[in-house]
Specification:
By secondary structure, the chain is an alpha+beta fold. The chain is built from 11 helices and 26 strands. Among the domains are: 124 residues, Outer membrane lipoprotein wza domain like (Outer membrane lipoprotein wza fold like, Roll), CATH 3.10.560.10; 79 residues, wza like fold (2-Layer Sandwich), CATH 3.30.1950; 67 residues, wza like domain (wza like fold), CATH 3.30.1950.10; 70 residues, wza like domain (wza like fold).
C-alpha cells in the first residue's frame, strides 16, 4: 500500500521537497528530516537575502534608466536644434562629443578615389552616335550598312543648262509659212522621230535648237518648201516615268552598295555623306539619262538599332574582360569608368563610319561594400551599388528590431591618414519625426553602421541572462525571476468604479523559488 502526504509552504519563496527511491531510502530520509519545513527555511532565508539584494540593485539601476528614457521622452520640449538632435563626432580617445554638420560629414575621409572595376562588377553600357559639341569640327552623318534610303529622282528645271531631248519626250514641230505641216511627235525608244515628208530624224540627245537647225537644213535641201524654211521645235512634255521608275526605297547592302532599276551598275554609298551619295547616284544615272536629274535622299539610320542591341549590363568576367555584342572582348578590370569609356571608343572605332560615343555607368559593385550590425533584422555585408543613406542602409538590412535605439545610430568611417576611424553618432529618430534629413547622410565605401540597444532592453537581457547564474542552488533547486517596467496611462479605481488617467512607471520584481517538496509517508508491508 502506498500513500503520500503533501505539505505546502507559502511565502515569498516557494519550495518543493521531493525524494525518489525505495522504501528504505524514504524511511531514512524522514528520520533525518523530521521537520522538512524548518530545514528548508534555512535555505529559503539565504535565498531571500540574495534575491532581495539583486532586486534592490536592479531596481535602482532600472529607475536610473527610466529617468534617462523620461528625459528622452521630453526632448520635444527642447529647442529645435538640441545637441542630441543632430550628428555628433565622437573622439575615440577621450569620448568627447562634437556636433558636426552634414557638409563636414561629407568631407570626412577625404575625396573618394575613382572606383576601379573588379571581377563580378556589373557595368551598364550603351552606345550612341556622337553629338556635335562646341570646339569640334563639323561633320555630317555617313551612310551605314543597313540604312534605309528613299531615293527620289526629278528633272532639273533650274534653267542653268539647255534641255536634251530624251526618249519618251513629246516634241512639237511648227511651220510658220506652211502651218499644215505642223505636227507633234513622241521620241521613240530608238531616239528618233518621224518628220513630215522627210522621214526619220535622230532627236534624242539633242537640244530643241539643235533639232530645229537640223530640220531646217533637211527641208531646205529637200526643196519641198518655197523659200527658206521657217519652223520651231518645242518640248511639250518630258517623260517623267523614266525618273519615277528609277526612284526606289532601298537598303544599303552588306557590301555597302545599293541597286536602282534602270541604272547600269550598283552605286556604293556606305561611308558617304548624304550629299556625296546624291552625287554618286546622279553620276550613275547620267549614264542612262540624257539630262542629269536632281537626286534627293531620305535616310532612316539602322545604326540606331545596331547600337540598341549592344546596350545592356555586362559583367566583368574572371579574365577581367566584358563581352558586348558586335565588339571583341574589352578589358575592364583595373579601369575606372572614364578609362573604360576610352577603351570602348577604341574597340567600336571600326564598327561603323560615324563616331560612336559610349556611355558607361556602374550598375553593380562588388569591390565597395558597407556593413550593418546591431539591432537590425539581417546584419551583414552589403554591396555599395549606389550611395545609400544611413536609413536606406537599415532598410536594406530588412529594418530594425523592436529593441533598437534610433537616437544613437553609430557610423564608423575610415580615416585616409591611417589613424583611428571617425566615429559618428546620428539621431535618425529626429530625421523622421522632425524632418532633420541632414541626419540621414550618404554612406561611403566600407562604412560600418551599428544600431545599439535601448536601455530597457539592456535591463531585460541582463535579468534573463544572469539572474539564474548568480544564485548558487543545487540542481534540484531553481530560480525564476520576472522583470517588468511599464508605463501606464490609465488605471481603474476599484472603489469608485471609474477610470482614472495617470502616467506612472512601475517596477515589479517577482521571484519564485522551487526546491524539494513532496513529503510522503512510509510504506508498510504486511506478511
Amino acid at each position: 500500500m502506498k500513500s503520500g502526504r503533501a505539505d505546502t509552504f507559502n511565502s515569498d519563496c516557494r519550495f518543493r521537497l521531493q525524494v525518489e527511491g525505495d522504501e528504505e531510502h524514504m524511511v531514512r530520509y524522514l528520520e533525518r528530516n523530521r521537520d522538512p519545513v524548518k530545514n528548508a527555511g534555512l535555505h529559503t532565508g539565504w535565498a531571500r537575502l540574495c534575491l532581495f539584494t539583486l532586486a534592490l540593485a536592479i531596481g535602482l539601476w532600472a529607475f536610473g534608466a527610466g529617468a534617462v528614457d523620461n528625459a528622452g521622452a521630453s526632448e520635444h520640449k527642447a529647442p529645435p536644434r538640441a545637441k542630441g538632435d543632430g550628428i555628433i563626432l565622437l573622439d575615440p580617445k577621450t569620448g568627447k562629443e562634437t556636433p558636426i554638420s552634414a557638409d563636414e560629414v561629407a568631407k570626412l575621409g577625404g575625396e573618394n578615389p575613382p572606383y576601379l572595376l573588379q571581377v563580378g562588377d556589373g557595368i551598364g553600357v550603351a552606345f550612341r552616335i556622337a553629338t556635335l559639341r562646341e570646339n569640334q569640327p563639323q561633320w555630317d552623318y555617313k551612310l551605314e550598312i543597313g540604312d534605309q534610303m528613299e531615293v527620289r529622282l526629278s528633272a532639273d528645271t533650274r534653267g542653268d543648262r539647255e534641255y536634251l531631248i530624251d526618249v519618251g519626250d513629246v516634241i512639237a514641230i511648227g511651220f510658220l509659212d506652211n502651218w499644215e505641216l505642223s505636227v507633234t511627235r513622241t521620241v521613240r525608244s530608238d531616239g528618233r522621230i518621224t518628220a513630215p515628208e522627210i522621214g526619220d530624224v535622230e532627236a534624242a540627245g539633242k537640244t530643241p535648237s539643235q533639232l530645229r537647225a537640223e530640220l531646217t537644213a533637211l527641208y531646205d535641201k529637200s526643196g519641198l518648201l518655197q523659200g527658206e524654211p521657217r519652223l520651231t521645235v518645242n518640248v511639250d512634255f518630258t517623260n517623267a516615268d523614266r525618273l519615277d521608275n528609277i526612284s526606289r526605297q532601298v537598303a544599303v547592302r552588306a557590301d555597302g552598295a545599293i541597286r536602282l532599276p534602270g541604272l547600269a551598275s550598283d552605286v556604293r554609298v556606305a561611308g558617304l555623306t548624304v550629299g556625296q551619295a546624291c552625287d554618286a547616284i546622279k553620276a550613275e544615272a547620267s549614264k542612262v539619262l540624257r539630262n542629269p536629274p536632281l537626286v534627293s535622299i531620305n535616310v532612316t539610320p539602322a545604326i540606331n538599332q545596331t547600337l540598341a542591341e549592344m546596350r545592356g549590363v555586362a559583367t566583368v568576367q574572371p579574365d577581367g574582360k566584358i563581352s558586348i555584342p558586335s565588339l571583341p572582348p574589352v578589358q575592364a578590370a583595373g579601369y575606372n569608368t572614364e578609362e573604360l569609356k576610352l577603351e570602348l571608343a577604341k574597340a567600336s572605332a571600326g564598327l561603323c563610319f560615324n563616331p560612336i560615343e559610349p556611355m558607361v555607368n556602374l550598375a553593380r559593385m562588388t569591390g565597395s561594400r558597407f556593413y550593418v550590425g546591431g539591432e537590425v533584422r539581417m546584419p551583414g555585408v552589403y554591396p555599395l551599388d549606389a550611395s545609400p543613406t544611413v536609413l536606406q542602409a537599415l532598410l536594406i538590412a530588412q529594418g530594425l528590431t523592436k529593441d533598437s535605439r534610433m537616437k544613437s545610430v553609430i557610423v564608423m568611417r575610415r580615416n585616409p591618414e591611417g589613424g583611428k576611424p571617425f566615429i559618428l553618432k546620428t539621431n535618425l529618430k529626429t530625421a523622421i519625426s522632425k524632418g532633420y534629413t541632414e541626419n540621414d547622410f550618404p554612406l561611403r565605401p566600407f562604412d560600418v553602421v551599428f544600431v545599439p540597444l535601448k536601455s530597457i532592453s539592456i535591463a531585460t537581457r541582463f535579468v534573463d541572462n544572469y539572474i539564474n547564474q548568480l544564485v548558487p542552488f543545487d540542481n534540484g533547486l531553481g530560480i525564476t525571476a520576472n522583470y517588468y517596467m511599464n508605463t501606464q496611462k490609465s488605471i481603474v479605481d476599484s472603489t469608485s468604479r471609474s477610470i482614472v488617467d495617470s502616467t506612472s512607471r512601475n517596477f515589479n520584481f517577482n521571484t519564485g523559488f522551487t526546491g524539494i517538496s513532496d513529503v510522503f509517508s512510509p510504506t508498510t508491508t504486511t506478511r
